[in-house]
Amino acid sequence: MPRPFVTHAQLPRGQAKIWMALLAAVLLLAPWVFDTPFAQAVLTQVGIAMVACLSFNILLGQGGMLSFGHAVYSGLGAYMAMHVMQWSGSGGFAVPISLIPLVGGLCGMGFAVILGFVTTRKSGTTLAMITLGLAELVFAMSLMFSDFFGGEAGLSGNRVQGRPVWGVDFKTQTQVYFLIAAYTWVCVGLMYAFTQTPLGRLLNAVRDNAERLSFIGYQPQRVRYLAFIIAGFFAGISGGMGVVHFEIVTAEVVGATRSGAYLLFTFLGGAGFFVGPILGAVGMVVSAVLLSEWSPAWLLYLGLVFMGMVMFAPGGMASIALWHWHWMRQAGAALLWPWYGALLASAAMAGLGATSAIEFFYHQQLQTLGGQPMRWLGVQWAVHQPGPWVAAVSILVLGLAGWVYCQKQWDRVWSQAMADTPRGQP
Amino acid sequence: MSVALSLQGVHRHFGHTLVIQGIDLEVQTGERVAVIGPNGAGKSTLFHLISGKLKPQKGRIELNGQRIDGLPPHAIHRMGLARSFQITNLFAAMSVYENLRCSVLWSLGHGYSCWKFLSGLKDANQRTEALLDQLGLGHKRHSLAMNLTYAEQRALELGVTLGSDSAVLLLDEPTAGMSRSETRHFIDLIRQVTHGKTLLMVEHDMGVVFELADKIAVLAQGQVMAFDTPDKVRQNPQVQSAYLGVQAEGRTAHA
Amino acid sequence: MEFFLISLLNGVSYGLLLFMLSAGLTLIFSMMGVLNFAHASFYMLGAYLGYILNGIWGFVPALLLAPIAVGCLGGIFEKYFLRRVHAYGHVPELLITFGLAYVVLEVVQLLWGRSAVAFAPPAWLQKPAFTLIGGPGSSGLQWAWGAVTQAQCQGDVVCSPFPASRAFMMAVALAMVLSLWGLITRTRVGLVIQAALTHPQAVQTLGHNVPRVFMWVFGVGTGLAALAGVIGGSTFVTEPSMAATVGSVTFVVIVIGGLGSLAGAFWASVLIGTVQTWAVAVDLSLMDMLRHLGFSSAYPVSSGAWSNLTLSQAAPILPYLFLVLMLVFRPKGLMGQRED
Predict the structure, then answer these.
(1) ipTM
(2) For an interface test with A, which of C98, C107, C280 has the most A Cβ atoms less than 10 Å from its Cβ?
(3) Which residue is closest to C105 within chain A, CA to CA?
(4) Is B1-80+166-174+191-255 in CATH node 3.40.50.300?
(5) Which of A310, B135, C118, C167 has CA 20 to 30 A from A338's CA?
(6) pLDDT tens, C113-161?
(7) To the nearest whole angstrom, how far is the Cα of B86 from the nearest Cα of chain A?
(8) Contacts of C327 in chain A (CB under 8 A)
(9) Cα-Cα-Cα-Cα dihedral sign, residues C12, C14, C16, C18
(10) What are phi and psi of A145, to 5 degrees?
(11) Do B77 and A207 count as a contact with CB atoms less than 8 A apart?
(12) pTM listed for this prediction
């Protein structure tokens, strides 16, 4: 049976260092390219999301543990970090803002020690159900105990406190960005390093065959528990980073929606690859911040893309990238380029037709926009008349037909190329 | 000679089905015992009981004098017992190399560590390389376990069992489903790698049994019908009628 | 006393509604191994479809046709979507239902808006089924069919009507329980289902057309959820958040009852329904209850969050508390046989 999550060969040490250097370069240069405070805020959110999704994937992709309540650990870490930040700012022991994410991490780890023990005693569906139950429990409690959770309005704090250290007082978005970027870089490095340790490999073994693992001397529960604690630590760091950036926490940070988002986007990025959650995190922030502005149908698109991904590319965006990489290195690939272009064009047409139809439909249904004319792709459309609809649906149908045709041609040319390739060549 | 493994009055039933109905067995250190018997005799259940997958409802099991019945599998393994499975039971999405490396980790004392890199564990990597050589799987070291041929998977299955260098080995039908030549090669391998160890092996292939075993234990209906050297067992009339067939006299071990 | 009885009846009726949902979910999970995250979405679809059909043809046709329509949708989903990911394992199966839940929610909001729609039960269900008359003024507890005149309810006499819509809910649910029980214990199909509830792989090897059985099971399971939706939607409320509210409690129910056990799902539904309904109505705090039981605080207890928390405020967490405790101490659930 095919399995979506596979342990890939270790990167040679040198290569891992190159990737980390590349990441550092990207993180350092990004704010020069995206230099508005808004853009830098988006970058900051991407960093926070990266750490959260990578920590989630320690459980899902590496450990085979499906958790519906990962936001509990990032959220509770965030709440504790906020309390510490508030306390520090109002005369308590002065905690440097740059250490607040670490506070979040330690608290996330603490909660994972307590709650993780009961969660990881079982595996599979039971584990998933426990995480769901705990998530609902914590969220329901957040509405009950307003002392700790701040009630409806949540808790807010101020990161500009204390004396500036080396001129850094976190007044500007850029300074916040660099703090988050530093934590992100370190956390990505640490989490990658984890995958190369004995415990990291044992975690993969527990995912593949917990029974066999017990027969080679290890307790599966212990492996899962330790991984859970480590994932909780990094989740807490992500929560703490969020506190520094947003300066507010509400019950939403421990909610089912957020846990669902971690699951959705980590899977979209590719849970079977280390880099998958990184791609997923970018997707998460882009859709929440940009896509939601651009279209009222963004959640629908997300749901449909997700379903499509599960059906056709369960390895996520990372697996699609890998497929491209393998294909392009194949001998005889040159023949396929035109068909690749045709497939892409068909997909674009189908996508255009589908999104147009959906946008038209949304425009019709939403009362708030009903009175205004529909602007889509720079053109005005008379949505109440059948014309635009016919056009949209025709383009969709054409695109789908084109895809099916090009797919067949691709298969034909591909198998031809395979037959023509002499044996022994890659 | 000391007793490596002893079973006294072991019983196990599933609901109303009595599978193991009182087994007494003593395996000396360094002995090679083949466990044979018709289907449904309880051979795999016996292995499950010894290795900790199941708990006996009555009786004791001792490993080197220490009680192991009722202990979980990882504890029994740590006391020096390793087993293989009749149905290949590997880490399917990991490479051959990783499968073997995981199996050596505990015995080399690396525990649950997350502060050292696997690439830096010289002893683990050396042992894994040695195993790869012995098994003849070096050329497939990066292949995922699920992509191996059946015989290669059985070899890896054996390898994962041997990784810990345990003194007592339980092999459950290691050559099941193999062709004649594969079986031949595999038996040589088993003989090599289990040199000096205590071996308990379930086998259906009589050729393999008579070649490898110091003693044969015949299991039927959950009890040990005979436990003796191969020649004596071959001549045992009960065993002949129940299992070997009356023409057992003329049989030679063919490879 | 009347309060207790009415609460009990309310709780049992809510529990039976939960059972209609959890029965379908249990069937789907036990036979296919799929934890259908979108099960409550089919509940919601049933309610909305019932609302539409109620407007066109009336309540009873809606009650009959909506579940069938939704069941067909469920079967289509199984055949063309779920089946495709079956080969990838249980996690992708779960994830596709997860995605479906998102999509259904968006579509429902798109078609019918974000606020509740006016789906009310028909006139003949809006009257009380019976009324309990009691209180310190009268002698003992009496009850009367239907509504009761104003004159009888004056002074100390308390009249507690029990709505017919609730009684109808109980009746439909019980009818469903009985027919399900009859199907499972008395028919050949039922025998197959019983076997597949605990040993799905063995049933496969016995040669049953497994994909077709899966499609039917999924269709029937979602159809049952839709039936619950028509009744629940008309009795309570029909709005986009109804899926989320009832969805998580349904999962709690099937886990507490024991994955793979219909009887367990039944008892767990009734238990959770009763406890939740009753707890919401109890306005006592922890301190009040302890005092009732005779404990008085030796230490001065500050007015913190814990002491002043009333049971009604804590009611939302009770099912999840039970879930976690059950999973910790008895993962098989009340009556389950499988622990996976």
Answers:
(1) 0.90
(2) C98
(3) A300
(4) yes
(5) A310
(6) 888 888 888 888 888 877 777 766 555 667 777 777 777 677 667 777 7
(7) 13
(8) 118, 122, 126, 129-130, 133
(9) negative
(10) -105, 90
(11) no
(12) 0.89
